[in-house]
Amino acid sequence: MEKKEVLMAEVITIANRKGGVGKTTTALNLAYSLKELGKKVLVIDLDPQANLTRCFDVENLENIKTIGHLLMAELEEESYSVEDYVISYDEIDIIPSSIYLSVTETQMRSETGSERILSEIIELVREHYDCILIDTSPSLNILTINALCAADSVLITADTQLFAIVGISELLKTIQKIKKRVNPKLSVKGILLTMCDSRTNLSKLLTEQVEEMYQGKIKVFQTKIPKTVKVGEAIYSGQSIKKYAKGSSVDLAYDHLAKEICYE
Length: 264
Known about the structure:
Blueprint: E1 10-15, H1 23-36, E2 41-46, H2 51-55, H3 67-75, E3 87-89, E4 92-95, H4 100-109, H5 117-125, E5 131-136, H6 142-150, E6 153-159, H7 162-181, E7 187-196, H8 201-214, E8 220-226, H9 229-236, H10 241-244, H11 249-263
Parallel strand pairs: 1-5, 1-6, 2-4, 2-5, 6-7, 7-8
Antiparallel strand pairs: 3-4
Helix pairs in contact: 1-11, 3-4, 3-5, 5-6
């Protein structure tokens, strides 16, 4: 009898302490590009705003099991099956989110050792996937700390605006603390520059600045995500860029990013 190959997912947390820098857009579109490379992908929406969940066409959030309920089940040491919380859409698995995650977060803040709860859940399904992507909220709360404690690596998104660049160094300090105290395997996958507009001097200057600042220390992805209205339009219509504008510059950029992550 032929032995079935066991997958062992790389867990990548997508993070930045600043909002509006393309975290959710990256989680969504990277998942689709990884799927096109033949990867089995699980996406976890760890943001109570649930923007990523809506892009996977998940409706009636009040009536479905979400990551908030799953974390609560682990917190309360109830018996559960992670598969019951997973929804499949376009051959990508997602554990959705809802505003209920805010309730869970409040409960987690008062529990000792709660920073490892997501890790416990992920270990139960890790062997079923090639890649697990975690989308986080733009604040350093107990949920984001959970995502960093559960991750093998962090993909930092930053648009080419000054304040987003400043946010990188703040996040790196947090990553170092978590690596030292809780998760020694944690590494930085790289910095992904988003919303790049090669026509503006500021965008070009800040791109150069980031590459110079972290050269030799942290990978800055060769792939840069271009600034285009298609990204906003796709998110507004609740679709990935691959469905909304296949073959566009942004779609191709995420395909290149997926290859950088998998093969370099």
